[in-house]
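thread: overnight batch results

M.L. [08:02]
morning all. the overnight job finished for the chain we discussed friday. pasting input first so we're all looking at the same thing
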Amino acid sequence: MKKFFKYTFITILCSVVIILVIFRNRIMLTYNLVHYVVSLKDNKVSYSINNMETLKTMDHKNIIYKKVNGRLQTLDIYSSKKETDKLSPVILYVHGGSWAYGDKSIPEFLSPVLEMLREQGYTIISTSYELMKDKVIFEDQVSDVKDTIRWIYKNGSMYNLNKNEIGIIGISSGAHLSLMASYSDNNHFIGDPSLKQYSSSVKYIIDFSGPTDLSTLNIKEVAPELYHVAEAAYNKDLLIDSYSPLKYINKNIPSTLIIHSKADTMVPYVNSSILYSKIKESKGRARMVSLSSSDHTLKNISQDDIKLLVTEILKFIILNSPL
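M.L. [08:03]
and the structure it wrote out:
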């Protein structure tokens, strides 16, 4: 009997050790998450998606990922800071700016989170896309995001990237483009013919206040300079329908985290609530996180909402993209 208990104890101990070894990266990332959230308790910083703070130690800047009709689009790579023999999971960041403004700089509120992920072995890629000027170019913009993903598949081995562990974080209009790119089939939205043969599939997407029903937007508020462009668009109703992520929902779409503030007046909260309902109806995988204290730009966001935001983003990534 003593031998039985002895061997049982040894077996359990070995199992625990094996589990700790297998999941040590998740455990460490979870520990860092808890430590970071606790540190936010006395943080009085006013966060905003419009405040930019470049991540430390960018490794590759302005890499050209496509050239079409003389137009260049580029991306930046912030490599993993962890020395390992394993391929690095990828998080692709797609910026907002009403489809007409902005660049691929990392927002202030995301920088500490992404830096923490880099410490644990993730690679962050931030991409550009063509901005609207005098006509609606959703087709080109979605193609730019999909071509960025295709470029990652093509060049993954060169930069030690795990092509099976790609996730996207999209902000506002960048979230709209990311949803369109992630939900549509590989053979849709072909931009650069040289990238056509590569996949555009991703494992998960984090949608931060993305428009999903363009008819709910007040273009005069969202992008005043684009108002006349939008009004002059041929068959506006067809345009709205064709570039709605809701149209592409099915049970096989990537796992989706939806984050939206109920106080958002620029992109109404209903955009996210409808998206969540449609995904659930289609038997897809989605989680909805509702903020309550901030507007579309995160102005005046409360500490409670900051903690909720950071916790849910990291928890979602940990569960969907194991190291």
